[in-house]
Amino acid sequence: MRSALVALALAAAAWALMAAAGAPRASSYVVVKPGVHPGILFSEAELPALRRRARGGGMAAEAYRRVRRTASAEFDPKLTVKQAVGHEGLRLARQLEAMALVYQIERDTATGRRAVALFDSIATGIDPEEFYRAVDSDFFATEHWPKAFAVAWDWLFPLLGEEQRARLLAALERWNAALFRHTES
Q1: Cα 67 from Cα 53, distance rounded (Å)
Q2: Cβ-based burial of 162 (10 A; exposed 0-12, middle 13-18, buried ≥19)
Q3: Which among 122, 150, 146, 139 is positioned nearest to 182, based on CA atoms?
Q4: DSSP-derived secondary structure letter, 31
Q5: Which among 40, 75, 156, 51 is positioned nearest to 109, based on CA atoms?
Q6: Mean pLDDT in consecutive groups of 10 residues from the start of the chain, 185 residues
Q7: Do the Cβ atoms of 71 and 99 come closer than 8 Å?
Q8: What is the pTM of this model?
Q9: What's the rounded Cα separation, in Å, for the pair 105 and 35?
Q10: Are 144 and 83 in contact (CB under 8 A)?
């Protein structure tokens, strides 16, 4: 239940922060070219408005405070596969998303580096084939890490060095292939 509330708070924060305050809807969408980061949910051009809303009042600021609390929680990135599938994995996936959002909104490099360490630890440290065997037929247990990985790759991209990008990209390709095999079986 707590994980669902955290996910809802993350979604509300992202949505509330993305809503352009007083801007006409027709001009609020920014098309992001392939390979440009960030591009999932918001663009670099939209960040100043998101930052103002996070610092402001109302629903957007309250949602962002919740994201900030989620991002600042302590964590142990060394999970077993069973934990990565279960509630702890879901909580950590949401925390990874929250830390990446805090990095983008505040350019908080310390939080960003914590997020990169968690991203790297899970993406390269857990065998995706074993993860999906543990998931078995629970379709809803398949989504939390791929979604968190996509957000982390996009929002933390500036903090990733070339060697780390190559290692993470290879790991993400393994996760993608394992997910494909799992959903096609």
Answers
A1: 13
A2: exposed
A3: 139
A4: P
A5: 156
A6: 58 59 57 91 94 95 97 90 90 97 98 97 95 84 92 98 97 96 86
A7: yes
A8: 0.84
A9: 20
A10: no
